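Translate structure to sequence.
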């Protein structure tokens, strides 16, 4: 009896230490090392008990095999469903068996280790599965955060240039396949350098943040906006016509011009100029962006606070 307890004791102690450290210590490299030790102790315990009883032709060999099987199932169950569901799946039937034995007056085995071995093995399996699940979840969340950071502008929380290039490529492929048209809008804040020079870059950052929120609130569902660089933004309008693209541009222009920007330095009047270009068949992404950029340059030359349609399109420019 003492021998069986000693074989199980290291695994139980490690499992308890793991739980205590998990709840009262910060996460660190210790988690991986202790988890490996816990797994090795569990495997070592099962292997030692199996070899011991096999060599002695003991009657407990079946319990060891059952315990190992139940431990594996417990790990799988806890990993997929969680420890709460594990308690329901295994705990309720076990409780029903105990109640049945007590109700019918059946005698319990003389050696109680037979009754507690399998639940103990399942409990250890649940501990290991829970730790594995949490470590995997932290790893997944960290990778998601890294991906988010790689594709998002840190200041405005808009997609960055890299993210927009991916979206542009996808939209270009759809347009080529389905014979559809999309529009690219290049937007640039008017006199933004003067804002930074007069009020400082912190106020300039506030302006960019407010601008991003107005862009997001104004665009239609399915349209995209990204910070292209500095105070320049690129807007992607799906399924566009000349009329719809210009309407979006004018809506964006008005949303920036009205109302004033409420910043730490007071209310500031901010405007934006836009260049609008519709994608043409057999035209590359860089070419349509270049035409939108040239239209933006014209908007700046013609007085700012306006949207200008790229040359070669039918339709009139929209002036502020």
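Result:
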């Amino acid at each position: 009896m003492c021998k069986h307890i000693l074989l199980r004791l290291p695994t139980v102690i490690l499992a308890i230490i793991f739980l205590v450290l998990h709840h009262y210590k910060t996460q660190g490299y210790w988690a991986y090392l202790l988890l490996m030790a816990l797994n090795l102790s569990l495997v070592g315990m099962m292997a030692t008990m199996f070899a011991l009883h096999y060599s002695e032709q003991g009657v407990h060999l079946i319990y060891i095999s059952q315990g190992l099987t139940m431990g594996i199932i417990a790990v799988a169950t806890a990993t997929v469903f969680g420890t709460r569901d594990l308690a329901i799946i295994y705990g309720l039937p076990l409780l029903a068996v105990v109640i049945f034995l007590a109700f019918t007056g059946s005698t319990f085995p003389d050696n109680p280790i037979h009754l507690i071995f399998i639940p103990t093995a399942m409990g250890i399996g649940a501990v290991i599965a829970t730790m594995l699940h949490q470590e995997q979840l932290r790893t997944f969340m960290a990778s998601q955060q890294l991906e988010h950071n790689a594709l998002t502008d840190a200041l405005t929380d808009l997609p960055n240039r890299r993210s927009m290039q991916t979206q542009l490529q996808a939209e270009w492929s759809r347009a080529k396949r389905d014979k559809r048209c999309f529009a690219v809008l290049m937007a640039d804040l008017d006199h933004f350098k003067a804002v930074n020079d007069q009020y400082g870059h912190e106020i300039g950052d506030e302006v960019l943040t407010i601008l991003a929120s107005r862009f997001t609130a104004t665009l239609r569902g399915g349209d995209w906006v990204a910070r292209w660089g500095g105070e320049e933004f690129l807007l992607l309008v799906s399924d566009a016509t000349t009329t719809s693209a210009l309407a979006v541009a004018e809506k964006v222009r008005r949303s920036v011009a009205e109302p004033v920007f409420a910043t730490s330095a007071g209310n500031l009047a901010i405007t934006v100029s836009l260049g609008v270009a519709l994608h043409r068949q057999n035209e590359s992404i860089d070419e349509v962006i270049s035409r939108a950029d040239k239209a933006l340059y014209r908007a700046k030359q013609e007085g700012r606070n306006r949207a200008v349609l790229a040359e070669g399109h039918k339709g009139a420019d929209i002036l502020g």
